[in-house]
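Recall that a protein's primary structure is simply its ordered list of amino acids. Everything else, from secondary elements to tertiary packing, is in principle encoded there. The following example makes that idea concrete.
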Amino acid sequence: MPARAFFDSNVLLYAISSDLRKAQRAEALSSDGGVVSVQVLNEFANVARRKHATPWDRIHRSLTSIRMLFEVEPLTLDVHERGLRIAETLKFNIFHSLLLAAALKAECDVFWSEDMQHGQALEGRLTIRNPFL
């Protein structure tokens, strides 16, 4: 059975970046879809606009494509509470902890991100992987 994958916004943002190697890797990983959270959509829009000066129409098109390809996990009170516990016990920042909580709620096996410790496992079933190593 293939792994159920959650994607951090940083991986998806490489698909629209000028870094060809990372863009190709991000596109290959995400071609079969996966899971994102509403927070990932918000972070994608923020970084695309602020750091990449992406025009709003392109941001909207990208987000529409992401929502069509990926399952979107909502930010709920349960995810919030679980994220707080993760932040407290594992010492991740709250934003990463909320993403991890959403991935756990969605029953993902892999968490693709370049911002956290590669290979670290949470609750014995979710493993953080840096796709660019």
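The mean pLDDT is 94. Helices lie at 9-14, 20-30, 38-50, 56-69, 77-90, 94-105.
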